[in-house]
């Protein structure tokens, strides 16, 4: 089924205003948890709101699930931490984890170029480095903005081409800017990262993802399928018809259309474990971590996460009234996602809404996105709260 949002199958770049972060505010765990519960209930109940929202908050070993609404319209069951879902562009953090773990192993270098690893790609791209791809400073045009790509998706929603085909939709387009001179979020970046991983390892990106990330971090319910199916039980993803009726689009498109840029299937519990391990440095060491965390204050997550956003290498920084966390956001058909952790990975949160919304939406849609962003800030505050 073709819908209004077909042109944003994964996510498209935006820049966030340079807001001054507020001083961290201490709050008790019980008060923060209650505030998050209220925010999720209000989000689901508002006009144009999602059928469900679920947040995981983990403070040290203590994990708490917050949720509102139902996992599927017409069913009484709430969303659960082990239900499957699309993680949208948080998949870019996974491709960052794969690539950076290989950098740590000496298999890849952040200074490796497209010309060295993928010489068949356009000559204008050859000087672009892995570092620039992961930091969205490559200048590569975004394949999801190509009219040819959109037409291809419309005519084959549930069957995607081989991953290398995705970059052919913009192979004849000029770079947006000289590599390394600007920040601009592009879905093409992570497709190129996935292809560089395959060239360096001699295995498929899916196998490298499993060997470098999902096995070491013990993520048994996380995968990157090619087709449209999502395992059961699942949190269903929705779009809203013109009259406000929710339409289930959970399995309307193939994950292969997003691949390393946004195709991963996971669960709230797995996503929480991933972000703790990724930010906490469990898949690469301190040397790589230091290179990852050079922040660009004008680089924004898409959609923007809570507080003031800054970009690093396959990672974003969120400075909020309660403190700072590192992570990633994303949206795709049926879902908007947020996952973040403290620098040491000991405190974390994920927030999942079963509806795609961003700051580019209008009317009720914009109000819903603003309410979600507020809920995400409440989730950060709950993760950072004192147990006393």
What key attributes describe this structure?
15% strand; Beta-lactamase; two-stranded antiparallel sheet; 388 residues; 30% helix; alpha+beta
Explain what the structure shows.
This protein is an alpha+beta fold. The protein has one domain: DD-peptidase/beta-lactamase superfamily (Beta-lactamase). Helix content is 30%, strand content 15%. The chain has a seven-stranded antiparallel sheet with strand order 2-1-11-10-9-8-7, sandwiched between helices. It has a two-stranded antiparallel sheet with strand order 3-6. The chain has a two-stranded antiparallel sheet with strand order 4-5. Helix 1 runs antiparallel to helix 10 and helix 2 runs parallel beside helix 6. The longest helix is centred in the last third of the chain and has 21 residues. The termini are far apart. The N terminus is likely disordered.
Total DSSP helices: 10
CATH fold naming: Beta-lactamase
Shape: globular
Order of helices and strands: HEEEHHHHHHEEEHHEEEEEH
Which structural class do you get from the secondary structure elements?
Answer: alpha+beta
Give the C-alpha Rg: 19 Å
In the CATH hierarchy, what is the architecture at level 2?
3-Layer(aba) Sandwich
What does the largest sheet look like?
Answer: 7 strands, antiparallel
- Tell me roughly what share of residues is in helical segments: 25-40%
The unreliable regions are 1-23
Whole-number mean pLDDT: 92
Order of neighbouring strands in the sheet with most strands? 2-1-11-10-9-8-7
Number of strands: 11
Structural domain tally: 1
> Which superfamily, in CATH terms, is the homologous superfamily?
DD-peptidase/beta-lactamase superfamily
Q: Can you identify the CATH class?
A: Alpha Beta
């Amino acid at each position: 089924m073709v819908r209004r949002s077909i042109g944003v199958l994964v996510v498209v770049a935006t820049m966030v205003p340079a807001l001054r972060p507020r001083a961290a505010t201490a709050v008790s765990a019980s008060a923060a948890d209650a505030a998050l519960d209220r925010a999720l209930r209000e989000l689901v109940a508002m006009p144009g709101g999602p059928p469900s929202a679920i947040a995981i908050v983990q403070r040290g070993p203590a994990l708490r699930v917050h949720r509102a609404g139902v996992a599927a319209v017409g069913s009484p069951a709430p969303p659960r931490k082990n239900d499957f879902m699309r993680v949208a562009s948080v998949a870019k953090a996974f491709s960052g984890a794969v690539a950076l773990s290989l950098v740590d192993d000496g298999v890849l270098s952040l200074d490796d170029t497209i010309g060295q690893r993928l010489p068949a790609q356009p000559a204008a791209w050859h000087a672009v480095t892995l570092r620039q791809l992961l930091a969205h400073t490559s200048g590569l045009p975004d394949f999801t903005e190509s009219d040819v790509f959109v037409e291809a998706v419309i005519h084959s929603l549930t069957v995607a081409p081989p991953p290398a085909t995705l970059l052919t939709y913009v192979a004849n387009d000029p770079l947006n800017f000289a590599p390394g001179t600007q920040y601009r979020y592009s879905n093409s970046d992570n497709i190129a990262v996935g292809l560089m991983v395959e060239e360096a390892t001699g295995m498929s990106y899916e196998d490298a993802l499993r060997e470098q990330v999902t096995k070491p971090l013990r993520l048994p319910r996380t995968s990157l399928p090619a087709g449209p199916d999502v395992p059961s039980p699942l949190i269903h993803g929705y779009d809203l018809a013109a009259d406000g009726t929710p339409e289930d689009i959970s399995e309307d498109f193939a994950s292969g259309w997003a691949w390393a840029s946004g195709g991963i299937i996971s669960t709230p519990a797995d996503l929480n474990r991933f972000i703790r391990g990724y930010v906490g440095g469990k898949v690469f060491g301190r040397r790589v971590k230091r290179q990852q965390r050079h922040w660009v204050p004008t680089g924004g997550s898409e959609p923007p996460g809570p507080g003031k956003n800054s970009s690093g290498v396959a990672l974003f920084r969120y400075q909020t009234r309660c403190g700072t966390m590192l992570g990633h956001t994303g949206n795709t058909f049926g879902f908007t996602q947020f996952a973040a952790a403290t620098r040491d990975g000991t405190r974390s949160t994920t927030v999942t809404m079963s509806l795609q919304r961003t700051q580019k939406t209008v009317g009720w849609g914009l109000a819903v996105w603003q309410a979600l962003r507020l809920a995400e800030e409440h989730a950060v505050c709950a993760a950072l709260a004192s147990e006393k």
